[in-house]
Design a protein that fits this description.
Elements (H helix, E strand, L loop, with lengths): L7 E15 L11 E13 L15 H11 L2 E5 L5 H9 L5 E4 L4 H20 L3 E9 L5 E5 L4
Parallel strand pairs: 1-3, 3-4
Antiparallel strand pairs: 1-2, 2-5, 5-6
Length: 152
């Protein structure tokens, strides 16, 4: 049953991506390299479920999981502009870390980073039938950030 006024949601959680990060602008201990096992919950929405009644066929999320693993599994995350980036790149060249750099590696910025990548993938994969409504990123069982899109 198809209705343009009805929205149905489903979520998928990906857990246990051990990585480290550093927030160089922080005036406390977060400026030091430290690590967590990150988890990601993606909330999908659609007006039109598949013939199987799915919002998103979770079996088709293998590319999303692969990207999360490439980006967050045993990696060192640094903010763009970190003044020690060249030193960390030298460590990476010597085999001491796998470096990933994006604008804001904190929980809030990671939500945006994941949302942007998954949005592009969903557009290609589903032709716009499914969209990402919310992303939650957890760095442990106490701390998380959630990005929810309004108006959809």
């Amino acid at each position: 049953m198809k209705s343009s006024n009805t929205v149905i949601e489903s979520s998928k959680t990906f857990r246990n991506f051990p990585c480290a990060h550093r927030r160089f602008r922080h005036d406390g201990h977060c400026a030091w390299v430290h690590g967590y096992s990150r988890s990601f919950t993606l909330w999908f929405r659609t007006h039109e479920p598949t013939e199987n009644g799915f919002v998103m066929d979770f079996g088709k999320l293998k590319p999303v999981k692969a990207w999360l693993e490439e980006t967050f599994d045993h990696t060192l995350l640094l903010d763009t502009g970190d003044p020690l980036i060249d030193q960390f790149r030298a460590i990476e060249e010597q085999g001491g870390c796998k470096l990933v750099v994006f604008d804001d590696v904190g929980m809030e910025g990671t939500c945006r980073h994941v949302k942007d990548w998954v949005d592009r993938w969903l557009e290609t994969e589903t032709g716009g039938r499914v969209w990402l409504h919310s992303v939650e990123v957890r760095e442990n069982d106490k701390n998380s950030a959630r990005l929810s899109l309004s108006g959809d």
